[in-house]
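New to this. Explain the following:
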Amino acid sequence: MRRAPGLAVALALVLAACQQPAQAEGVVATPEAAVKASEAPGRRTAVFAGGCFWGMEAVFSHVKGVTSVVSGFEGGGARDARYETVSTGRTGHAEAVRITYDPARIRYDELLRIFFGVASDPTQLNRQGPDVGTQYRNAIVPQSPEQARVAAAYVAQLRRTNLWRAPIVTAIEPNRGFYAAEAYHQDFMLRNPDHGYIRRWDVPKVDALKRTFPQFWKASFTVN
C-alpha cells in the first residue's frame, strides 16, 4: 500500500501545478437552457472538469441543492489516479469534481449554466489560465443518457451565441470513472481561506457566483 504524501511532498506537488501564477477566467451570464433536464427524484451526480479543481469545488460548494462536491480525476484508469502522476499530463485524467445534487432543488441544466458562466472558461483548450496540459482540459462527463442529451443541447445552444470571443472547446466525454483526490485537496478553500491562490483566483469565482447567479447561491460551504 502506497503511503499518502507528507506535508513537504504535498506542498511541492501543489507548487508544481495549481499554485502557478494564474489569470482569473472571465465571468459570463449564461442563458437558461432551452432543453431542461428531467431526472427522477433522488440524489444524482454530475462530473465536470475545468482546470484546477480547488476553484471548481469552491464554486459548486456554494450552490443550493448541492450536497457534496469531491475533487478528483476523470478520464484515466484507477492505477494512475494520484495527484503527482496526473500532474505529469500523461495519464489521460483531468482534474474534475463530482457533484451530488438534488434535482428537485437544482436541475442538471442549471449546474451547466454555472459551470460555463463562472466555474471555468470553455474557450481554453487543455488549459485554464497558465495551468497547461490535458489534465486541465474543459469537459463534461454525463452520468446518464438524460445528462448527455441535456449537455449536448446546451453546448449547441451556447455555440450559437456570441458570449465569448473565441470558440467553445468544451468536450463531452464518456464516463470512464471518477477517482477522488487525496484528502488534502478536499474542502480546500474552506480549510485554506488565506491561501494565496485561493484568495487571488478562486474567491473571485465564488463572488461571481453570488453576483451573477443569486438564485443559486448559498452562503454556507458544502462540507464532504
